[in-house]
Input
Amino acid sequence: MTLKFTAMKKLFLPLIMLILFCISANAGKVVTDSLYSNILKTSQKYNVYLPDGFDKADRKYPVVYLLHGLYGCYSDWVKTGNMKLVADELIASGEAKEMVIIMPNAGSADVRNYQNGYFNVEDWPYEDFFFQEFMPEVEKKYRIISDKQHRAIMGLSMGGGGSVVYCQKHPKMFSSCYAMSAWLDNKNGQVGGKNEKKDKLWIVSQSVSANSAIDFVANANDDTIQKLRTIKWFIDCGDDDILMDLSVLLFQKMRAKRIKAELRINNGVHNWEYWHLALRQALPFASRNFGL
Output
């Protein structure tokens, strides 16, 4: 038994070393950048994942916009979600195409005193900023193929809901959407409760209800439904997640309107362990739908 184990160890060790070498040899990099927003009247930081060889080539790349959740910021996916490791592995293995991944900032951990959210609210017209300033700037600076077929969006929790609504409102902009544990509505006080004082958390909760992804599908006319069918949809949530029922309800509304979508309810809760694994499915999903 010991001899067999030793032989297997000798066999697999070089293979493991080869895989690690291939990943390190094709490693991308993450840079932190910023731009001043005339719409928000403040400077906004963001992170960018650049694939290996980006600095040596003149080619353009497809893009994924990767959104963070409530209580988070632009650095979450790198520091906590290990997205660089995931992207490096998937690109090195061929499971995902070389791509640029943009991680914008739409909040802070101080949710009661700092405005969070991806929608326009008083003194925080974030959606205007995202589409009128942010996207044009980063896509020019980082050599993005700026068309629907090469642009995807995804995110977790608040960012998952933001991703869905951005695709609903701007269907000509994105080829696919991957929503992780998405915060899609808040009429039942899923986040923050129903009787919170009117602070910044209350404002973002109200904005999620006002921009309900579920209501959008339920109220969509035939023309809107046809546009939503041009997007590839993937809804992913844990079975013990407080927001799971919203994901199921959105899928049911979409299916009733014959809008094709993938739904996966997996073992898990609302945490980074779940989202780290979800990202391994999300990037290949976006990649498969580039150029279609």
Summary: The longest helix spans residues 2-25.
